[in-house]
Prior knowledge:
Blueprint: E1 11-15, H1 19-30, E2 34-39, E3 50-54, H2 60-67, E4 72-75, H3 84-102, E5 105-111, H4 134-151, E6 156-162, E7 164-166, H5 180-185, E8 188-192, E9 198-199, E10 201-203, H6 204-215, E11 224-226, E12 233-234, H7 235-246, E13 251-255, H8 266-272, H9 288-294, H10 301-317
Parallel strand pairs: 1-2, 1-4, 2-3, 4-5, 5-6, 6-11, 7-10, 8-13
Antiparallel strand pairs: 9-12
Helix pairs in contact: 1-6, 2-3, 3-4, 7-10
Amino acid sequence: MTTAPTPAPVPHAVLGAGPAGTALARELAGRGHEVRLVDRKGAGPAVEGVTRLAADVSTVDGARAAVAGAAVVHHCVNVAYHLQLEVMPLVQKAVLAATEEAGARLVVLDTIYPYGETHGAVMTEETPWRATTRKGLMRAELDALYLAAHAEGRVRVVLGRAADFFGPGVLNSTLGGAVFPAALTGGEVPGIGDIDLPHSYTYIRDVARGLATLAEHPDADGRVWHLPTAPALTTRQVFAMIEERTGRPLDITTIREPRPFGPFDEVFMAEYAEMFYQHTEGQTVDSSAIREAYGLAPTPLGDALDETLAWYGDFLATR
């Protein structure tokens, strides 16, 4: 495990104020860093120690404004699923150029899409990139460009990959707004694909801890890391853990093929159909490398579910 003195606080620009960006901004501020949280509106609930800025980082001028004065830039931007193929390359181009111009480091929140179908094999950072879907190929191309920019000495870059998110604030996830509210109220819970296969889920606060730690360790640059992810269970086992905590059985409806459900409408599911293989083969993410290098262990799944259910309980009480 690498040991180093506590890094001095530096200015961080977090691009994207969704669940991951917001959790990361909160984590960085808690570590004493100066944090700017950027999205298109620049509005939202106050986060202690964090300032907000409105900027469109898919444009060069917007990206320049977003990263001005930052020593570290975090790319946590996401867009509507049906717009990803068009917009994400624009964001990359603008953010890379602005970060290079600013002389900052770039930390990118990434997905496991570039691996493509693994037929149940455990995914490590050494797993080949064999994506065949449009979104998988797009992500793989963007990642190759990020790493090339680093190799060419243009921008120092590090990528942190996560499995499906869950946790406080995470609504649009297969373990999110379609599951926890129903678990608490007795509604229908969708079981996507084969719920008896192992499936990794990454806790949103571990996403934040992992990205913040990579940001504080320049020796991590130039490669992909898997963010802390608890050992994979089957989705049915995860559901059983939720049942234990709520004290009621889940009303599980199996979704065996792509179709609208919960927060996922027809537009989303039409785009998600090509990624549905993630629920018909095992999806196991190994994050031992970041644990061995920086001592980052994932939050125990039971604790993460407790915190998530508590957040959703509060969320439902305010609706």
